[in-house]
Amino acid sequence: MYQILEKNCLASQVFRFVILAPDIARKAQPGQFIIIRLDETGERIPLTISDSDPVRGTLTLFVQAVGKTSLEMSRMNSGDMILDVVGPLGNPTEIDRFGTVVIVGGGFGIAAIHPIVRALTRAGNKTISILGARSKELLILEDEMVTVSTEVQVVTDDGSRGTKGRVTDILQTLIAKKVLIDRVIAIGPLIMMKAIAYLTRPHKIPTLVSMNPIMIDGTGMCGACRVMVGGEMKFACVDGPEFDGHAVDFEGLLNRLKSYIPEEAEAKEKFLSETKGTCRLEKTSGVI
Predict the structure, then answer these.
(1) Which residues contact 247 (CB under 8 A, 6 or more apart)?
(2) Is there a contact between 200 and 176 (Cβ–Cβ < 8 Å)?
C-alpha cells in the first residue's frame, strides 16, 4: 500500500499528487513512469514520474481526470492509500551535453518534461522550453519550468497567456530564425507530437517523442502498448517510452487508440452512475 501525502488541484481536472514510495523514489530517473492500481478491482494505468525525492522517499505525479480511473483517483485525498505502484518503468531520457535542446510540453505533457528539462539544464545544455495549453487556466507549472529552463516560451490557443497559437508556431519561428537546435523533445497529445516530428524532419533535427498508449503489465508481456517505429514493432513500456519521432507510425497508433473509445466511455459513465457523486474539480488551490 502506498500513501498519498499531498494532493493539489492545479487547473480544471488536473491534480498533483505526492505519494510515499521510497524504493521507487531512490531509483527513478527523468523520463520514466509507474503503473498504478487503486484497488483490487481497479485497472492498471501508467503515470509519468514528474519528480522524485529519494530523501523523502516520494514521487510527484500529475493526474488529469478524464477517464474512469483518473476520475476515481481525483476523488482521493491526503492520507488515502493506493494498492499497487510498480516502477520505475521504461528507459530514462538520455541526458548528455547536446548543446541547444528545445523541449515541448503540450497541456498535461508539461508535467512530464519538467524533470527532463531540469536534468538537461544541469548537464550544461541551453534548454528552450515551449509550454502549450488551450488557455491560461489550463497552463500548469509555468513558474517551475522557468526555474529549470534557460528560456521559456508560453503559447495558448486563445492567447490568454503568452503568444496566441500553437507550440509548432514557436518552434517554426525558432527554425526560421536559424537558431541552431541540436535536439527536440516533445511530450503531449499524439497529434501535437506528430506535428512536431513532421516540422523537424525536413530540417534533420533529431526529435524524440514520448509514447503513452494503453498499458497493462508494463513489462512487454501483454503487447497492448505496441507501436510501429521504423517499420518494426516496439513496446512503449520496455523499448520506450521515448522514440525517434521521425520513425513513429503516428497514423497507425492514432487509429489503434480509437479502438477502445466506446469501452472507455462506458466505464466512465458506469463509475459516475454508481458513485452518484460529483468529482471535486471545483477546488483550484490548496492541499486537499
Answers:
(1) 229, 230
(2) no
DSSP, collapsed to helix, strand or coil, labels residue 265 as helix
Counting DSSP H helices and E strands in the chain, the numbers are: 8, 17
Nearest to 27 by CA among 116, 112, 85, 87: 87
Q: What is the DSSP string of 24-69?
A: HHHH--TT-EEEEE-STTPPPEEEE--EEETTTTEEEEEEE--SHH
Query: CA–CA separation, 113 vs 220, rounded Å?
Result: 24
Q: Which of 93, 87, 90 is nearest to 59 (CA)?
A: 87
Cell numbers 535536439: residue: 183
Name every residue whose Cβ is closer than 8 Å to that of residue 156 and which is 6 or more positions away in sequence: 132, 133, 134, 135, 136, 139, 162, 163, 164
Per-residue pLDDT of the chain (288 residues; tens, 9 = 90+): 999 999 998 877 889 999 999 999 999 999 999 999 999 988 888 999 999 999 999 999 999 888 888 888 989 999 999 999 999 999 999 999 999 999 999 988 999 999 999 999 999 999 999 999 999 988 999 999 999 999 999 999 999 999 999 999 999 999 999 999 999 999 999 999 999 999 999 999 999 999 877 777 787 888 888 889 999 999 988 999 999 999 999 988 888 777 767 767 777 777 777 776 444 443 333 333
Return the amino acid letter for 153: Q
Q: Exposure of 94 by Cβ count < 10 A (0-12 exposed, 13-18 middle, 19+ buried)?
A: middle
* Contact between residue 152 and residue 143 where contact means Cβ atoms under 8 Å apart: no
CA dist list (Å): 240 to 19, 209, 211? 24, 9, 7
Tell me the whole-structure pTM to 2 decimals: 0.88
CB 245: neighbour CB atoms within 10 A? 26
All domains of the chain in start order, with CATH: 2-90+263-275 (2.40.30.10), 93-207 (3.40.50.80)
